[in-house]
Specification:
Layout lengths: L3 E5 L20 E2 L2 E2 H11 L4 E6 L4 H6 L4 H7 L9 H9 L1 E6 L6 H7 L1 H4 L4 E4 L3 E5 L4 H12 L2 E7 L9 E7 L4 E9 L10 E9 L2 H8 L10 H11 L2 E5 L2 E5 L3 H16 L4
Parallel strand pairs: 1-4, 1-6, 4-5, 8-12
Antiparallel strand pairs: 2-3, 6-11, 7-13, 8-11, 9-10, 10-12
The chain binds uridine 5'-triphosphate.
The site of uridine 5'-triphosphate (UTP) has 20 residues, from α5.
Amino acid sequence: MITKCLFPVAGYGTRFLPATKAMPKEILPILNKPLVQYGVEEALAAGLTNIGFVTGRGKRAIEDHFDVSYELEHQIAGTGKEKALEGIRELIERCTFSYTRQIEMKGLGHAILTGRTVIGDEPFGVVLADDLCFGEGEGVLGQMVRLFNQFRCSVIAIEEVPRDQTHNYGVIVGEAISDNIFRVTDMVEKPAPQDAPSNLAIIGRYVLTPDIFEILEQTEPGKNGEVQITDALLQQSKSGCVIAYKFKGRRFDCGSVAGYVAATNFCYEQKYLKDD
Ligand code: UTP
């Protein structure tokens, strides 16, 4: 059974400067809830209660968010405002939180390898909290954990993107097992549209088997001089099996201003405009 979920949150969030100069991008709110809280809610809904963060400098606010604020709680005790903290309190009660630091930002693959100390030798989920996902019926990570239980190998979430966007993603080639499930045969990190072998882009949800750590240890820096998880997954797909899953639901790239605004509008419509 999978119980652990890793949140790499050490990145600089340069696409969102100056907002992210002194504040982690994962704390940016969609309506009144930080992105990272949506991510942890999704992990909990998938049954993953051991939450591990790979943090970096300037990310203290994330630790504080998943802790009790006694002064604040004392201040609002007995008022209607207590309700606003119910969701985060439930997460604090039902999950455990561990933290390790990535000292140098050497890429997502390196961040995941840094998380080995909190994961150990078992399969685990990975959530990139700036990719905000809303599953249809079931959360996206929950859908992936079910697939993992069926295939017992790494599962990565994919989405069809417009051709002119492929340079922002890892792109896969795969043999279709069914409509939404592919066995990965090739992967390219951030290909130019003319070089992209498909428009099936990897988004920020993974279920990984622990052999990925040994592979990551051997993975040389790739595109942009960073250790790419895509390169390690390609290696894993060659020696074993990696499943790519076209999830049911919607995803917003909240690491970009346009995606963030789209997510905000989507959530506002869902939450406040329903009864109008
Ligand atoms: P991104 O490239 O989307 O995040 O990395 P970033 O670097 O923070 O953002 P920009 O591009 O400068 O705006 C994907 C995820 O991997 C994490 C990031 O925190 C993000 O969740 N990451 C990336 C790390 O934890 N460490 C790294 O060295 C790189």
